[in-house]
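Record 1 of the preview.
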Amino acid sequence: MLDSAIDPSDPGTHPRGENAPQREEGLRDWATWAAGHNDQFNLGAAFEQACQKISAPLACANSMLTATNSAPVRSNSATS
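->
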């Protein structure tokens, strides 16, 4: 899973990128798998196509992660 801890004994966001090589390997494994299931997910039949289709959402997620690591996250409470 893309949002799982790479090492369950060391969970966390690792904002300094200590686990970047493992994340990259996991993403490559996933994209290869997704390309092999293009008939189900329509991400492209090649590794590069699958990576390209998910690059914008990943960039957005990385941007949010960077922002939350540099400042507290604040939200308004919803009341009913």
